[in-house]
Design brief:
Blueprint lengths: L16 H12 L6 H9 L3 H15 L3 H8 L2 H9 L4 H13 L6 H8 L4 H15 L3 H8 L2 H11 L10 H14 L8 H10 L2 H15 L3 H8 L2 H15 L1 H13 L6 H11 L4 H12 L3 H8 L2 H10 L4
């Protein structure tokens, strides 16, 4: 499992927010727009620095940077640039709202966000959601989903995952409980799966999965695939992946956002924006290992224009 952090977007050092704000103003002043200059400023600074640049832009020119960008840019390129101005957990809250508003639900987006964020991050997402939308996230998720999948997501929203080191005795018991709740019985007791997968620390879950394989001769991942289906299966598999190899989970999501006819642009943008300051270096390595091609080559084949250029720059390629 990859450990540590390998971002593809890092803080500018030295950092000059006035200079960056001036460069953005110049890129949008008069006829036409210098998209290359906008890309350069946005990919050479972290979210925290971009927020500072946004503040300096308003102070220096008396104009709102977001409004200026909206009037100058369009399409998916605009979507990426505006996403890069949101603090990560604000962006998560907005993406969840997008996933549940209107007819239909984007369950994959809910899984990707709620099953991979830390306790602290989930608490922050809930706070931002309430501030932005004057609504309770748990109630909104419960109203938009159903059954054991709903219970799994609500369990993630409690932000109550243990951070305890592995307990070998408890891991053995948890593995037995999972085996009895799934493979060993007719039907599946999803409440046991939910309880263990939502409450135990990731380090402990790795120990549980090792114990499970000794009891069952199957991996727990294989058991989940045979015992469950649909969104619930996808949610369980996400938690297994977070515990065992989180870059592989995101590499797979990136692959699915681009494979086949058409591109799931909102998913591709969310994945690149949310991971470029986290672990995109590891995700790229996993992607190449899993699919035999670079992430950059997929983006080049699927996207075009300034949209393609900014995505490539965010993943550290051109």
């Amino acid at each position: 499992m990859a450990t540590g952090v390998r971002p593809t977007v890092t803080a500018a050092n030295p950092f000059n927010p006035d200079e960056a704000a001036q460069k953005l103003r110049k890129a949008m002043k008069g006829l036409g727009t210098d998209e290359a200059a906008i890309i350069d400023v946005f990919v050479r600074h972290t979210t925290q620095q971009r927020i500072e640049i946004e503040r300096h832009f308003k102070t220096s020119f008396g104009k709102d940077l977001r409004k200026e960008l909206k009037s100058e840019l369009s399409g998916k390129f605009e979507d990426v640039v505006l996403a890069l101005l949101d603090p990560p957990r604000v962006y998560d809250a907005k993406q969840i709202k997008q996933a549940i508003k209107g007819i239909g639900t984007d369950e994959a987006a809910l899984i990707e966000i709620l099953c991979t964020r830390s306790n602290t991050e989930i608490i922050e997402i809930k706070q931002h959601y309430k501030t932005l939308f004057k609504s309770d996230l748990e109630k909104d998720i419960a109203a938009d989903t159903s059954g054991h999948f709903k219970r799994l997501l609500v369990a993630q929203l409690t932000a109550n995952r243990s951070d305890a080191p592995p307990d070998p005795t408890l891991a053995q018991k948890d593995a037995q409980d999972l085996y009895k709740a799934g493979e060993k019985k007719f039907g599946t007791d999803e409440s046991q799966f939910n309880r263990i997968l939502s409450a135990r620390s990731y380090a402990h879950l790795r120990e549980v999965f090792n114990c499970y394989q000794k009891i069952s001769k199957n991996t727990f991942e294989k058991a989940v695939k045979s015992e469950t289906s649909g969104d619930l299966e996808a949610g369980y598999l996400a938690i297994i992946n977070v515990a065992t190899n989180i870059p592989a989970f995101f590499a797979e999501r990136l692959y699915h956002s681009m494979k086949g006819a058409g591109t799931k642009d909102s998913e591709l943008i969310r994945l690149v924006v949310s991971r470029c300051e986290e672990d995109m270096g590891f995700i790229k390595a996993e992607f190449q290992k899993m699919y035999g091609k670079t992430l950059g080559s997929f983006i080049k084949g699927d996207c075009s224009g300034d949209y393609k250029k900014i995505l490539l720059a965010l993943i550290g390629e051109s």
